[in-house]
């Protein structure tokens, strides 16, 4: 019986470690000559019994995107979930969507690199 309790305890620790992760999105084909084209801090407060959502649109007809970093500033697993909706690496534009978890907010730093 004691070994069963220990197994259950270890399982709960593993589940906790898996749940407490950042939700970063990184899509990179970066070169040494690339420069930071755009940076933005995106933050939304929680709303009780709702999700928060926000889109970031970046476009530059004179640049090609080589790297997109959407970095979750909440490292406890409670942050949002970013996704690229259109454009991205190899394009001159990108639309990034961030959606919070239910009844949670989010805080991300977005960096876009290119040449």
UniProtKB/TrEMBL annotation:
Residues 1-20 form the signal peptide. InterPro entries: MBF2. The keyword Signal applies. Keywords: Signal. PANTHER family: GEO11136P1-RELATED. This is Salivary secreted peptide. It comes from Diploptera punctata.
